[in-house]
Amino acid sequence: MHFVVLVEDQSGKKALDILIPKIIGGLHTFEVKSYKGIGRLPKDLRGSSDPRKRILLDQLPRVLQGYGKTFATYPKNYSAAVILVCDLDDKCLKAFRTELVNLLDACKPKPETRFCIAIEEGEAWFLGDIPAIMGAYPKVKEAQFNSYVNDSICGTWELLANAVYPGGFQTLSSLGWQMVGAEKSKWSERIAPLMDVESNKSPSFCYFRRNLRELAGMET
Fold this sequence. Notes:
This protein is α/β, with parallel strands linked by helices. It contains nine helices and four strands, in the order βαβαβαβαααααα. The chain folds into two domains: 2-122 and 200-215, Rossmann fold; 123-194, no CATH class. It is globular, with a radius of gyration of 18 Å.
């Protein structure tokens, strides 16, 4: 099985480049394609925005249609799938997933696709493995995790920043979004290698893991 994994930013790519081999081993191939933000799905599901801007949801209709046509040309013994990984942020999960499914259904031909939504943000997958965070940041402020409920809507990246970044999220956010993005990439580089994909407590991470393995024929 070959996986094409679409993510909204560079920090997500860095994390998944490390985590996916832990999940599916070396018998399958994958490529993680990062975008420059999540954007929003076009109302008409046609995706007419400038592809050079590389905004994930804006481009998703065009991208899925393209992979549908590409996958249709592959030999029958070669399987491939698209995995969309993006943050829920403040969207309604049910409504967002319905929009995504409607978009996929409109593709002719339709590529094998799974939608894996991090709730609320990608940092929730790190917070599903507190020992990995503690290993990556020995001076972590553990008290920040005391009341955390996995996949809760609570300002996930801010919570992680409060735990590991000097001065917390307020100091980090005051430096601008470019610095926030750079710090998130550092979290991916330091935390992801230490994560145990079998014991992660984030339900949305477990959903991602299960979908990869089901497609790869590793579990039923």
